[in-house]
Design a protein that fits this description.
alpha/beta, Aspartate Aminotransferase, domain 1, Aspartate Aminotransferase, domain 2, 2 domains, seven-stranded mixed beta sheet, 15 helices, 42% helix
């Protein structure tokens, strides 16, 4: 079995990398270790790069379509990894998850409709609603014993008022919940009762950490599936974000036709040949690579957890059950959000996502990316420890 090297440090500067080459724009300085954007600092798997190189050698990049192999790869991966049996015709295309969120809002709601989100949550959820002239309804998650819980009473009140849709992050970003079956069933029961369409962003579905499992919302029952729009992609799992290729899985014929009509009317249904081939290679050949990736990220989670507990007790990690992001509770530092962000940038030399970016409930938190070589994580923790030693004085 091939052993993949996740310790290798890849120089990403000057590659038009958002994470590295936009540090000056977002942090005011290039002198930070970037641990913000949710892509990985690991090499994209070689079997994917080989597939892209082989196609590029053909020399002609004309119009292309997604062949049966593309759909079969997705169907087989979902059955193999998530025990979810779907049909290839259920799979719709989107040039990414964030575009898919906006497309779903346009397809299934109308201006003025209320759409529920559960902050703190991935911030493009907010703009997908507000930028399309829909109304945001907030059902804030509750932190209970270091894990987020859904407020089902609050959810039912919002649904009762006439919400058209709820957008959920499953697994949850930034909190790291791998939502349990009973939690999702409770949410779905409420949404079905009030005829609220469920949009489930499951882009982190494969990135479930050691000891946990992912539950596909639409897999729970046929009734739930008929009212669920599932969004997924190989991009987070295999570090393919630049290829702008995602799947929107819709079992209900009417809903699927409505979604596809919007995609086709906007003329964004073609995608790109490299995204297609990368997805096929990822899902057909990526099992062992993913297995080793999860083990490596679990090691990084443990390093962060142990270092915070032993050397930086003022900061507490909400241990992620899924995703390679860690949600850091910095409330013991007693800084306001602006001061906290400045501390990480100017004193610790670290570029993280401020928690307030994720909405209500994110104050005093910072989100960090653990999909990096251990040496980078250890350097970042050393800088944070040194900065806090000065702060304590």
């Amino acid at each position: 079995m091939r052993i993949y090297n996740f310790d290798e440090v890849i120089e990403r500067s000057n590659t038009a990398s958002v994470k590295y080459d936009l540090r000056k724009m977002f942090f005011g300085t290039e002198e930070v270790i970037p641990m913000w954007v949710a892509d990985m600092d690991f090499k994209t798997p070689p079997f994917i790069l080989d597939s892209i190189k082989e196609r590029a050698e053909h020399h002609v990049l004309g119009y292309s379509f997604r062949p049966p192999e593309y759909y079969n790869a997705i169907v087989n991966w979902l059955q193999r990894h998530h025990n979810w049996i779907i049909k290839s015709e259920w799979i719709c295309f989107s040039p990414g998850i964030v575009p898919a969120l906006n497309l779903a809002v346009l397809a299934f709601t109308k201006p003025g409709d209320r759409i529920i989100v559960q902050p703190p949550v991935y911030f493009p959820f907010f703009s997908a609603v507000s930028s399309n002239n829909r109304v945001l309804s907030y059902n804030q998650l509750q932190m209970v014993t270091d894990r987020y819980q859904m407020d089902y009473k609050g959810l039912e009140k919002l649904c009762m008022k006439g919400a058209a849709m709820i957008i959920i992050s499953n697994p949850h970003n930034p909190g790291g919940n791998a939502w349990r079956e009973d939690e999702l069933e409770h949410l779905a029961d409420i949404c079905l009762k009030y005829d609220v369409l469920m949009v489930s962003d499951e882009i982190h579905a494969d990135l479930v950490n050691v000891g946990y499992k992912h539950t596909v919302l639409a897999s729970l029952s046929n009734a739930i599936a008929k009212k669920t729009i599932t969004m997924t992609s190989a991009s987070k799992t295999f570090n393919l974000a630049a290829l702008s290729t995602a799947s929107v899985i819709i079992s209900d014929n009417k809903l699927r036709k409505t979604f596809n009509n919007v995609v086709q009317n906007l003329h964004i249904d073609m995608g790109n040949v490299f995204g297609t081939l990368a997805t096929i290679a990822a899902y057909n050949q990526g099992d062992k690579w993913l297995e080793q990736l999860i083990q490596y990220i679990d090691g990084n989670i443990n390093i962060l957890d142990q270092t915070l507990k032993s050397d930086i007790p003022e900061i507490k990690m909400i241990r992620p059950e899924a995703t390679y992001m860690a949600w850091l509770d910095c409330s013991m530092l007693d800084m306001d959000d602006k001061a906290l962000n400045n501390f990480f940038i100017k004193e610790a030399g670290l570029g993280l996502n401020p928690g307030i970016q994720f909405g209500k409930g994110g104050s005093s938190y910072m989100r960090t990316n653990l999909a990096c070589p251990k040496s980078i994580l250890e350097k970042a923790l050393g800088q944070l420890k040194t900065a806090l030693e000065k702060y304590r004085k």
